[in-house]
Write a structure and sequence with these properties.
The protein is of the alpha/beta class and about 260 residues long. It is about 35% helix and about 25% strand. It has helices at about 45-55, 95-105, 110-120, 140-150, 170-185, 195-200, 235-245, 250-255; strands at about 5-15, 20-30, 35-40, 60-65, 70, 80, 155-160, 190, 205-210, 215-220. A hairpin with a 2-residue loop joins strand 1 and strand 2. Helix 2 (about 95-105) packs across helix 3, helix 3 crosses helix 4 and helix 6 (about 195-200) crosses helix 7 (about 235-245). It is globular, with a radius of gyration of 18 Å.
Length: about 260
Amino acid sequence: MPHIEVRNVSLVYDTPAGEVPGVAGVSFDIEASEFLCIVGPSGCGKSTLLNVIAGFLAPTAGEIRIGGKAVSGHGSDRGVVFQDFAQLFPWRTALGNVTFGLEMRGVGKVEREEIALAQLKLVKLEKFVKSYPHHLSGGMQQRVAIARALAYNPSVLLMDEPFAALDALTRDDMQRLLAEVWRETRKTVVYVTHNVAEAVYLADRVVVMTPHPGMVKTEVPIRLPRPRDPLSVEFLQYQKSLLHHLGHDAGARATQSG
């Protein structure tokens, strides 16, 4: 049985101007410990779909099943990391942010701090446990967010363009870090991005969505050994293939020539 089953999921928003479709008839499976990226044009419903899997939005039609169980709201089996740095509590230290979810679940102070320290070490922030978010760079804040999402040991990690607001060098560093974290934890990851190179670097498989309303256009398995070399011919060929599916043939030619 797949770990996550997305079955004919549609979502329609009610707006003052009338009903607006978000995603339409989306179906795919995700295996346990698979790293799946979702790419597509802006407004195609990538984040909407992630929020449905997270249980933050209820689909208009279809269903999501995780471990064979229908999703009916957010659960502790799913950790979520967003793009916005404001997802951290500014009045809490890095350690305090990571322990928050455990604290809400009634985990004792010693145990929750032990767990939080282990997660902060995993994301290479063990020297910054007492730092507040405003003392940390954007990349470091996102590392805290990842540690917090992992702290209560969810089986699924959902990530909505978590590195989009970072500069290029920091983003590269974060991609390498995330690949290491995934290798260590073997979580099932669903990762939304508009960055094709990022998808090729991280994913076992990429789901490409159509323009609004979002439907699955195709699925592309990424059969490259890890760690991946973004300058290899094979890597660039996968980029070209994804850009072609997205309708960016001119971008694909530029990538190929670069």
